[in-house]
């Protein structure tokens, strides 16, 4: 949360609503920092772990395969990733950590041009020369060369869309259409013409406000680094706090952080769900934590006459006497839980719409149909492509899996054989929204459209596409829409919660974390648990 939280009294009772990564990690950190506190975590589904779902099934021959039906990799350069990896090491799971080298094929990324050709994002002179001859590069050089001299916003205190910020900085809308829209499809499943620049492009937003230009800001930062002292703690404020609170060896944490920065992405043996499973196992072993599943919280109750918070469950049961309540679900679900008498709060929570992403997994055994020249992490689709199938991007899971190497050099984990194809196709997001309504394609229709797209983009034959295993997953309302003015909205909602519930309710999850990634909500959980310690 942006706002401060109250320190919990001794022997408090805390309720946590939501058993995804956000709820699990907040519970883990708070339970470790305050063993005197009794924590009850409520999850409405049969399983915890949230959107992370490493699904185990079998191929046509009965051999086990794992399909990621949610997030699958982590950024190496991230405080949250350092926390995650240290927690895994604490629970003897370092052998599960896998990494991708910066020069690996799996670190190559592609974009789909307006003519349905895949072009590599430059990482060498050869790929750079190919890129500049592609329509996607139009407007790039003039946009970059003139950025230094372009005027900043005439309303420096006001938020704006990512598109308006980038169009102004680069002097054209081509960079947004051809490049940035694809990146935002991959991260937010959303549209740069409606997303908050202050929330989702903060570095550029504040660099322009402070220096007048992103290039001027970069130059100033370079000068400061050049002339600044090299001494000082290399750990960030977050990691220093973690080191202090959990009595970590600073040298070990520094080494871990530096090692992780070498790798653009990391994964886990058995899939990313290994993380919440490890945390869940740890929580199950903590005497001060209780986890209740398959019984959603429907209402929260609080009156000024009572010093504690209560919850009502879908089966009608009520549980009272909580000194603090942590909500980690989406804002629209929070809206249904709070009292209808708090009209302004309910209205504010309902302002945040959420995008739905359809994930389609494809597995073809004994055959690699990804062209060698396209081996990489995958590709994203910008708004400049006609894109009738509404594809946001495609992840080449089999390439990633075959390029993973153990983070722990002592690990005996074997690399997989490369005679198979595994893809994840992301469909929809904001592209499913029209005239204020969301239309989710049926399974057969969606898979048929995805086959058309893969045949056209990657030249995979119809025969191979028909021979594979297909799995369809709807991640309904999984990404909050960060509209213009989102930071102001967040501060207002947080304050109203703190005022209405006398500081006894705090907010987490993607709607209130710094960003939508797994590392973001992990850091959010740690920092808020620390505030309440």
Verbal overview:
This protein is an alpha+beta fold and 533 residues long. Among the domains are: 13-50 and 273-352 and 484-532, 3-Layer(bba) Sandwich (FAD/NAD(P)-binding domain); 54-74 and 91-107 and 353-480, Polyamine Oxidase, Chain A, domain 2 (Alpha-Beta Complex). The strands form six sheets. The protein has a seven-stranded mixed β-sheet. It has a five-stranded parallel β-sheet with strand order 10-2-1-14-23. Strands 5-9-6-18 form a four-stranded antiparallel β-sheet. The two termini are 15 Å apart.
CATH superfamily placement of the domain at 13-50 and 273-352 and 484-532: FAD/NAD(P)-binding domain
CATH topology of the domain at 13-50 and 273-352 and 484-532, what is it called? FAD/NAD(P)-binding domain
The CATH architecture name of the domain at 13-50 and 273-352 and 484-532 reads 3-Layer(bba) Sandwich
Rg, nearest Å:
24 Å
- Put simply, the count of helices is 19
In spatial order, strands of the major sheet run 8-7-16-17-19-15-22
Portion of residues in beta strands equals: 15-25%
Shape: globular
Termini Cα gap: 15 Å
Q: Please state the average pLDDT score.
A: 95
Largest beta sheet, briefly?
Answer: 7 strands, mixed
Q: Estimate the helix proportion, in percent.
A: 25-40%
Structural class: alpha+beta
Query: What is the tally of beta strands?
Result: 23
Low-confidence stretches: none
CATH class of the domain at 13-50 and 273-352 and 484-532: Alpha Beta
Keywords: FAD, Flavoprotein, Heme biosynthesis, Mitochondrion, Oxidoreductase, Porphyrin biosynthesis
Protein name: Protoporphyrinogen oxidase
Domain Amine oxidase: 23-358
EC number: 1.3.3.4
